[in-house]
Amino acid sequence: MRKGILAVGAMLMLGASMQASADAKICVFDLLGKSGEAYKAMEEWALAAKTWHSDITLLSYQNEAQAQNDFEQGKCDGVYMTSMRARSYNKFAGSVDAIGAVPSYAIAQKAISFALDRRNQRRLNSRIGKQSYEVAGISQIGLAYIFVKDKNMNTIEQIKGKKFAVLAYDEAQKIVVKSLGGQAVLSDISDIAKKFNSGEADIMAAPAYAYKPLELYKGLGNDGAIIQFPAVNMTMDLIIRPEKFSSGFGQHSRAWFINRLNTNFALIQRIEAELPAKYKMNLSNEDRTRYQQILREARIGLTSRGIYDATMMNVLKRARCTVDRTNFECTLGGE
Hints:
alpha/beta; D-Maltodextrin-Binding Protein, domain 2; 2 domains; 10 strands; 21% strand; globular; disordered N terminus
């Protein structure tokens, strides 16, 4: 009798183990599809996941909205997409991309490392209705600089009345453009560059990674410029349904992303260095401070409205002031 019970128990445990190790599908967004760096990184991740007793199938998407929709419809057990869009699943991790909050790669690396730290495990798990979600990784896309069709659009005053392409699903961008007196041209990540290149928009923010594949040189033409002011730091989030994966999978995954950060940042900075020097333009120190002040006020307002996570805003401020103690905001409260 005892042997029979043990045998049944062993079979049940084996069945549970097999279920936890079953094939999982991840929707992966990359503008360049399977040839893009984001997709290639996820191929490395999927290979590593085998050691965590998980077999992963990656599904490639060049349309981010479709990747999210398929995740919502249950066609995928996880989705890899921009943090701005993923913020709806986890505000803490999604707030790493807060407007103007991460002005350098040194700060970006601190922010991502902190967010994925084991001590933040509870903050990386969320529940919306009956569904549970977990942030299983964050990676860097790059600092998004300001692309303008006319190099004379290099001050706050020159932005007033101009058409600024923004991602329609990110309330923060729309609010900031309005506060600057610009006209928001609502876009998606799949068509934002087309609007800039065709002249529907005068200004857009984008990381260096987007320059070649989105042919942004067409929009810049002979008179445009890339203003070297990081309006936002862009990252990718891996969101999973934890019940579809083996126990401890999320922690293994986050550790993998942390270990890969140096490689991730080195790649991004190499791509950034390839931007044509003729387009690069720096702001004066006075204008840089003015922009930072405007974005700071916008972040405080957005946090009070619940768009950004207050804990992450405090962490990002401490990171900024650790890297640059002379920053004007370091003696101010509010974040």
